[in-house]
Amino acid sequence: MSFVPGQPVTAVVQRIEIQKLRQGDKLILGFSIGGGIDQDPGQNPFSEDKTDKGIYVTRISPGGPADVANLRMGDKIMQVNGWDMTMVTHDQARKKLTKQKEDVVRLLITRKSLEETVSQSKGKNPKPCTYANEKQNLNDVMYTNNVR
Amino acid sequence: MFCRNQTTRATVARGSALEMEIRIGKFRRNDLQDAPPSQDSDIQKKIDHEIRMRDGACKLLAACSQREQALEAAKSLQTCSTRIMAYMSELQRMKEAQVMQNVPRRSSDAGPMDERLPCKGKVAISDLRIPLMWKDTEYFKNKGELHRCAVFCLLQLGGEIFDTDMVIVDRTLTDICFDNAIVFNKASPGFELRVELYSCCSEDDYSAGSTPRKLASKLSSSLGRSAGKKLRAAMEPGPCSPVSNGGASPLLLPVPSVPGPKYHLLAHTSLSLSQIQDGFRTHDLTISGNEECSYWLPLYGSMCCRLVAQPYCMTQQMMSGCLKVKQCGGDPQSWTNVFAVLKGTSLFCYHRQEDVEANVEPAFTIGINKETRIRASEKDPQSKVQHICISNQYGGEEVTHTLTAESREDTHRWMEAFWQHFYDMSQWKQCCDDLMKIELPSPRKPASITPKQGSLYHEMVIDSTHDLSSTVSDILARRMQELELRSQLGMSPTWMSVFEENDTKPAAFPRQCNSRLSGHSPCSPHRRPLSPASPPCCPRLGLLSSDASLTSDSDSHCSTSPCCHHRGWPEPSLNFPLLSSSPFGLRPRTLSLDAKLSTLRGRGYGGGGGTFQCPCQPPPSSRLSPLPISSRSPLSQRSTQTTLSCSSSTSSNSSSNSEGSHSPESSEGVLFSRPSPARRSLRNLRARLDPRNWLQSQV
C-alpha cells in the first residue's frame, strides 16, 4: 500500500456497508479510527508503510455495527460514502463518518489479506481497483468488487 | 585508570618534539616500551590518510569554479579536519595512558583492573530530520532573493566520524532531511554520539575573503541594507561564527586557509544510550549563531531521528560448547547431550554442532534474559562437578534447567560467560530486550521519484483548473449563504470576484479586501501576509486544502493565519496538506498547524460567546453523553509518547466546540483528569494537535 506522491493509488478494495446503530440520540458505528495527514504515521501499528498517513481502523467494538458488517481491525479506509479518506486530516475523517443525518455508511476498505487472496487465486483475472487521488476523478472511477 | 584530562582537544604543544614526531610520522620506540606498536601506527596511518585527503580537498577547492563543487569540497575539508582532530586527540590519549602505565602504581589503585567490560555493539542512526521554522512572511511572500544554505551533518562516535550528504536548503523546504543511515561499529554502552549541523551560505556573490576591505565596505554600503549585512557577515568570520576548522586549535599542523565557502557550526546535540529506541524520537538541538550570521537558518530547535543499537551480545555467539541438560522434574538420569550456543536472549541447544551452521532449528531454547536466575548448585557427589541451574519464569511457572559441563574448567567458563552476558544486558539496558533492526541504506532509488529538492508542492499535478475553480466557487457561494456572510459584512467580499472573473487574470486581484475583512484575505492566490488572528466576528474561510474541509459541517473555519511560533510543536511540517486546489495554478497555500490551532481556538471563542452561530448545526442536546468507559482505555503504543496530559473527555471537547460537533469528540488521550474548562480546552487542543499523539477517535 505504498504510494508515489502525485501518482494514482492502486489497491484491492472491498465494500463494506455499515448500518449505524442508534444509541441514545446518537448514531454510532462501533469502531475507532486512527491516522490522518496531520498525525504522525510512524506510530501507526497497522500500516505496512510507516509513511502512510491514511485512516486505519484501530479498534472494533465487539458486537457493534462495524463488527457485524465484517470490518476488521487494521483495515485502511479509502472512501466513506464516496468521500476520499486517503488524504484527509483525522478530524475530517471523523466528521465524514459521524454525520448524524446519514444512517448508513458505505466504506471502501483495503487490507493486506485482500491483496494476498487476489494474488493467490489463480485462474481469475482480478482487476485491482485504480484509485485515483485527484479529486475530480472521484466519480469516474470504476471499482471491482473483490472476493474475500 | 587515571585520566588527566577529560577534553578531547589534543594538547600537543607548539614546537614540541611530539609534534615533530607526529608530523614526520616516526616514534621513538624506546620511549614507549609497553606500547603496542600496531595501535599507534594504525592511527598514524589514518592521520596520514586524512591529511592527504585534506590536501586534495584544498586543491580541489582552489581549483573548482562551480559553487556546488566548491561546497562539496569544503564539506570534505571540514570532515577531514574534524577527523584529524579526533585522531590526534586519540593519539594523545593513548600516549598519556602509556606514560601513566609506566608509573609504578600504588596498591590502593589496584582493583579496577579486574573490572568487567561490557561488550561493544553497533549503533546506527538514520532518517535524520531537522524541521525549519520560516517566518510566514518569508514563506508566502516569495519575493526577495532566495536565501540558500548548504548544510550537512557530522556524526561522531568514539573515534569514528561520518558526514552526511550535503543538502541545499532554502525557504521552500520545511525540513532538512538526511537520508543516510550511518552505522558505527565498536560502540560501548556509554557512548556519546555527537551530531553537528554545519551550514554555509550559498549565495553566489559572496566569495569570502578575497575582496579587499575597503572595497567590501564600499560595496556593502552601496547595496541594500540586508544584502550588505549579509555580505559583510559572509566576508568576515565575525563574532557569531567560530573558525571553521573546529575551534581554536592549538595544534600546529598548518591548517590551510583556502578561499571559498566555509562551513560554520549551526547546531549540535549529543545522543546516548538513553535515547535509543526502536522508533523515531525527537531530540533538542543546541543552536549556535544568531540571525545576523550569514549561515543562519531558522531551526525549530529539534531533530528527529531513529537511533538503534545492536550490542554484540545480541548478534554474536558469546559462548558455545557441549553440555548435558536435564529438565527439572524429569527423570534424574535423563541427561541430554546438546551443543549449546549463547546468543542474544537465549541459549540455543542443538543436537549436534553441525546443526548450527546448517541453520536447523535448535532442539530447544532456554531463555536468558533479565529475569533469568542462574546459579551453581552443589557438587554432584559422583563426578564432583558443579551443576548450573537456570531458572526462568514462564507465565507464572518457574522452569528450571540443569546443565552440566564436561569439566570444572568448562563449568567455570560457562558461568563466566553467563555473568558477562548478564553484565552486558545490564549495561545495554533497553537494547537487549529485543534485537533492533539496522537497515542498511538500500541502493539509491532512481531519481524519477524525487527529481529535485524542493517542497512536495512542486510535484503536485493539477490538470484542469477550470473545473476546480467552478467547484470552488460553488462551494464558497453555498458557504456564504449558510453563514449569512453578506449580511454581516454588508458587502460582497471582494474575494468572490476572484472566482466570478475568469481565471486568466491572477494579477488583478483586488488588494483592498485585505483590510476590509479584518485582516483576512482568505482566497488570495498571492502569498499575502495576514494579520494575526482576530476575534471571529468575521468568519474565516481559508482557501481550501480539500473540498471536504469546506463542506464539512462544523469545521469550516480553516484560517490561514500566520505562524504563531508555537514552541510546543516539534513537527509543524507534518500538517501541510498534500492536496492543492489553487484555481490559478500558482503555488498553493498551505494550511499550517498553527492555522489549525487558531481555527480551533476560534471555535473555542465562538463557544464562549461568539457573535454568530453556525445555523446549520442543530444545537447539541447532550454534550456530555457518556461513552462506554471500556472503549476509552488508551492503547499501549501511545501511552509512552504523550507528555501533555490530554484530558480526553468529551466534556472538554464539547465545551470548546459550541457549534456542536454532533458526535462528541472522543479523541482518546492518556489521562482522565478534569481540570478547569479553559485549561482543559487548551490542553485538549494541544494534545489533539500535538503530532506526537497518534489520535484515535471513536465513531
Automatic annotation (TrEMBL), chain A:
GO terms for biological process: cell-cell adhesion; convergent extension involved in axis elongation; establishment or maintenance of epithelial cell apical/basal polarity; neurotransmitter receptor transport postsynaptic membrane to endosome; neurotransmitter receptor transport, endosome to postsynaptic membrane; receptor clustering; regulation of signal transduction; Wnt signaling pathway. It holds the Pfam family PDZ. Keywords: Acetylation, Cell membrane, Cytoplasm, Membrane, Nucleus, Phosphoprotein, Wnt signaling pathway. It is found in: Cell membrane; Cytoplasm; Nucleus. InterPro entries: PDZ (IPR001478), PDZ_sf (IPR036034), Synaptic_Scaffolding_LAP-MAGUK (IPR050614). It is a peripheral membrane protein. GO terms for molecular function: protein kinase binding. This is Tax1-binding protein 3. It comes from Kryptolebias marmoratus (Mangrove killifish).
UniProtKB/TrEMBL annotation, chain B:
Pfam families: Anillin (PF08174), PH (PF00169). Residues 316-423 form the PH domain. GO terms for cellular component: actomyosin contractile ring. Residues 622-679 have a biased composition (Low complexity). GO terms for biological process: actomyosin contractile ring assembly; mitotic cytokinesis; septin ring organization; signal transduction. Keywords: Coiled coil. Residues 609-699 are annotated as: Disordered. InterPro entries: AHD, Cytokinesis/Rho-signaling, HR1_rho-bd, PH-like_dom_sf, PH_domain. It comes from the Eukaryota. Residues 26-100 form the REM-1 domain. PANTHER family: ANILLIN/RHOTEKIN RTKN, RHOTEKIN. This is Rhotekin.
